[in-house]
Design brief:
- The chain has about 160 residues and is α+β, with helices and mostly antiparallel strands.
- It folds into 2 domains: about 45 residues, no CATH class; about 90 residues, no CATH class.
- It has 5 helices and 4 strands.
- Strands 1-2 form a two-stranded antiparallel ribbon. Strands 3-4 form a two-stranded antiparallel ribbon.
- Helix 4 packs across helix 5.
- It is flat.
- The protein binds zinc ion.
- Zinc ion binds next to strand 4.
């Protein structure tokens, strides 16, 4: 492996880490893990490097939501109330367990522009993940995260 190949491999792993993906060896098979779908170009590059890489399994959030609705309904909540309560709970769980991609150094997690101490603050956005964000970007960032959570958990709901 030449220096250029090595640099490309390191850059690929950095990109994977920014998206919270990781490679794990399970029973001799290299598997890709990630809390949410990875960008298609990243998957393509990984597949080109490691043709035998097992596809990653994503958490089944709609199934988690359906199970929570059923559990709450079994405790006596009517279907509508159970769905509303379960949706709020599972959305909060998704937000906690699904960190956004880590921005490049000194960049805002929402807009991607440079951050300065005067206009940006660190924000804990998920377990073990803190990003810097402009104060003006806080509201749209949270709204976008909430929308992403609802898209992920509502893929199938009745
Ligand atoms: Zn910003």
């Amino acid at each position: 492996m030449g220096a250029a190949d090595l640099n490309a491999a390191v850059a690929l792993l950095d990109d994977l880490r920014r998206h919270h993906g990781r490679l794990v060896l399970v029973d001799g098979v290299l598997q890709l893990r990630a809390p949410q779908p990875l960008p298609a170009d990243l998957i393509d590059k990984l597949a080109a490097e490691k043709p035998n890489l097992a596809r990653y399994a994503l958490p089944d959030w709609p199934a988690t939501l359906r199970a929570r609705i059923a559990k709450l309904a079994s405790r006596g909540l009517n279907q509508e109330a159970a769905k509303a309560k379960a949706t709020a709970e599972i959305a909060a769980q998704w937000l906690w367990e699904t960190p956004p991609p880590i921005p490049l150094h000194d960049r805002c997690a929402h807009c991607g522009r440079d951050t300065e101490i005067a206009t940006a603050k660190p924000l804990l956005v998920a377990k073990s993940t803190t990003v810097w964000i402009h104060l003006d970007c806080l509201v749209p960032f949270r709204a976008a995260r909430h929308e992403a959570a609802m898209r992920a958990i509502r893929a199938v709901t009745t």
